[in-house]
Amino acid sequence: MEYRPTEWDARAQQLWRDLNVYRADFPSDRNPFYVLDMFPYPSGAGLHVGHPLGYIASDIVSRFKRHQGFNVLHPMGFDAFGLPAEQYAIQTGQHPAVTTEVNIERYREQLNRLGLGFDWNREVQTCDPDYYRWTQWVFIQLFGAWYNKQSERAEPIETLVAHLNARGTEGLNAACHGEPQCTAAEWAAMDAAQREALLQHFRLAYRSESLVNWCPALGTVLANDEVVNGLSERGGHPVVQKPMLQWSMRISAFAQRLLDGLDDLNWSDSIKETQRHWIGRSQGARIRFTVLAGEVGEVGKVGEVGKAGQGANDPMSSGANEPTSQRTNEPMGGANVLEVFSTRPDTIFGATFMVVAPEHPMLGEWTTEAQRAEVEAYCERAARRSERDRQADTKTVSGVFTGTYVEHPFTGAPIPVWTSDYVLMGYGTGAVMAVPGHDSRDHALAKAMGLPIVQVVASNEPVDVQAEAYEAKSGRAMASEFLDGLATVEAIDRAISELESRGLGERTVQYRLRDAVFGRQRYWGEPIPIAYRDGVPEALPVDELPLKLPAVDKYLPTEDGEPPLARAERWVSAEGLPLETTTMPGWAGSSWYFLRYMDPKNTNAPVDRSAADYWGQVDLYVGGSEHATGHLLYSRFWTHALHDLGHIGFREPFKRLVNQGMIQGISAFVHRIEGTQTVVSAELAGQYSTQKLHVDVSLVNERNEVDRDSLSTWMPSWAGTEFIPSEGPIKVEREVEKMSKSKYNVVNPDALADQYGADAVRLFEMFLGPIEQSKPWDTQGMSGVVGFLKKSVRLMEKRHDGAASADELRILHQLIDKLQRDVETLSFNTSVSAMMIAVNAWSGIPQLAQSTLRDFAVLLEPFAPHTAEALWAELGGEGSVVLAPYPALNPEYLVKDSINYPVQFNGKTRFQLEMPASASAAEVESAVMAHEKTAHFLEGRSPKKVIVVPGRIVNVVG
RNA sequence: GCCCAGGUGGCGGAAUUGGUAGACGCGCACGACUCAAACUCGUGUUCCCCUGGAGUGCGGGUUCGAUUCCCGCCCUGGGCACCA
């Protein structure tokens, strides 16, 4: 039998299609197993060898579980809404759906070329109206829900309305923004618009005026996870903070549950830690300081502000993006009270000034006339700076005195109020009590402005708080009246109790997690299914879904800066109401797609409850770690909410998560003398003033030599290139970098599959190393796995119809044992090596039984399914090897009857001693002592101690 | 700065609960086959001052025994970054 990989690839793939072997059944009596890959965004560049790393691993698990009799769900789809297709549309006028479809077609071909066993009957595309109909449906569910902190779950908005009818906001414990409140009587008196304005503060999908990340270059707002170092994740454009009326998702309501849920998930520590940080729970207290009246400017219009909650443009939305407060009923106190959050209330006696964020809504009120010009100038400067600028110089401190003072709650001393941009409006209350003695940032401002620094925590080591803040939480309170002598932890507790008893503050938990901005001023996304009746948002009736993307003449904003959907001719609901013009962000469709695979054709619901109950959580989810704070958090949030609302029976979507590492490219550079067309071989480059330029890796051979002719004809700009030396090889320089089109280091998996066969690519990617690890792609090693496949095929020449020998069975069962253990940890590099060891061992046996070879074909199948299929056919197997049962492990063949003991003297291995496995420790010891070499290594000493670990090792100490 | 992961031959990497460090593969060297080359097969391949010694980033420690456990440091990759 000759090894013919490309021929076998085609034949096996045809057989799989004919027999529909990857079909997942429902209903079914078999046990379900759900293996999921993060579905790709179909970009124009196609797949490179890095993408399939995770797909191959999950494919191996799927195939393995199928052999073991599980009903395996292993689907694939496309995350098809996104910016690149839209940018291309803006440039060319081509509808994004067209480019997207072309790209999807190419992706599907590339995935199939590698023999990945997906159930394509269940494919989903997020841009398909039959799919996004249900994304819109989920949005409507969230719009129609609120989070009840009493029951700790999301509930239909009707239960909130019932509460408001009965008692107003009294006794209500809900996740919300701002300080919405009303009595039952006030609620009863409100008109529809006023009621909706109030409800918006509670809905899980809501609209509010808030500070958002605005990216002028992309013309859209972005979520926090889409902004990296003050630049947009896509495209790297500057991002600024800007207040806008926007749709948001109240993910902050689920902060504690998203935190707690991590404990039971089988995910990597680093992803869990990343999420914990992103959620950022901190415990402390809210503390209220009374603003000293004499100093307050324009006190007149104060009182009304805090009582808002009525009217469509209510003023209480100003702090909308701040995480929800523990309380809902206490008034913020308007300009009379300055409220801060602190994790160190024990240091309150060290608070020598207050700092509020430049965006703080009360700042204007608190600024005295004398200071007004200076404060306004400062705020304007802070607003103009982009996030990036603000982050760039965290070293320089700046701030301005407002002219106002607050009263210290315990000492009654006046404390000056400052504003500085190191205090963020988006966290806590947007104000802090500055304790320069024990907080480095407060310390920096105090130093710069000459404000007093007081020590209120004593340490065992000598500390000088004038020089540096003492921030450790291990110390005892001092100069703090009733707190003196208490250890920090106790002092915090005591300080909070004291504040609570005086009604000046309370214990609270603060989260860093912000609500997620949900609207995008873009075309290529799901339309938000909201219509406006007299300016009041209402959800479309579910039976009007899908709300399809309208045709537009251009994919750009309108002249007035409205999103592209405003260009549509009649963008109104069935009832004729104007529709929302922003679309959903990229993460909407990917937040629930794993549910749709369970029931992809359902026209009555996103997923039938019975299908969701049968398949349950994803057993294994494989994908990149770059989604740690985006997709992986949002999809958890939606799953929790859908669970609470009764649509599915589990809270957490992904039981186990494995992050595959990145495959890096090995870029090639030539040295070109600056300002010339002359290329210098790398070893001579030091003699010239050269620049390093990327060249395509396909122009370079294994000896790192670039071909002159192909370089000259590679691109027009390289025509007429001259070379030094003029004869002989031209060397390139190599460097490991991220694999990317622009670095010309991309290797395509389908091209490799055409050259070596799909199985060689699969095996090689797995053999490269542990799945989670990043590693450079080096095709040189390919010959190793090709050799293994050829050797495997050559075993067929040894086959006979008789019974299998004990030797060959021992090899077989050791392999089964190893493979079964490896699949649990996805340790497929060692699986490949174990198969190599087995094949090498069988190669040394003159004859092999047909049954052994058949079993081997099944063991090989998850890794190299095409070759296994060819072997299976040759061995007379029925149907497809994909559906064959896994060979049962017979542990008898794993038992060894003798053990080769390494014998150590003082920890150094000196010789081996073969002993029967049944030998006792005493027998082993006497055998060692009787051994001729023992006397030599003891050099006349008598052993102090002989350690015998049965079955393992002997160590003679002496 | 804080948090997480990692550091083993020329290279990718392997090593159950602490128990023969370097499996498997690449590369390299030598040999067989061949007129020759490719393919294939075989042998060797951690290093050194080689009857021995050293050795898993560095320095200590625990242990009969440490890649594995503990303490301190260095480096690499990733995450967060004025979060009060």
Largest sheet, in brief, is: 7 strands, mixed
Helix run count: 29
Q: Provide the helix percentage.
A: 25-40%
The shape, in one word, is globular
Distance between the termini: 60 Å
Low-pLDDT sequence parts:
295-332
Mean pLDDT: 88
Number of strand elements? 37
Class derived from helix and strand content: alpha+beta
Global Rg: 34 Å
* Portion in beta strands: 15-25%
Description:
There is one protein chain. This protein has 958 residues and is α+β, with helices and mostly antiparallel strands. Helix content is 32%, strand content 19%. It has 29 helices and 37 strands. The strands form eleven sheets. Strands 10, 11, 12, 13, 14, 15 and 18 form a seven-stranded mixed beta sheet that branches. Strands 24, 25, 26, 28, 30 and 31 form a six-stranded mixed beta sheet that branches. The chain has a four-stranded parallel beta sheet with strand order 2-1-22-23, with helices on one face. β3 (145-148) and β4 (153-156) form a beta hairpin. It is globular. The protein binds one RNA strand of 84 nucleotides through α10, β11, β15, α14 and β31.
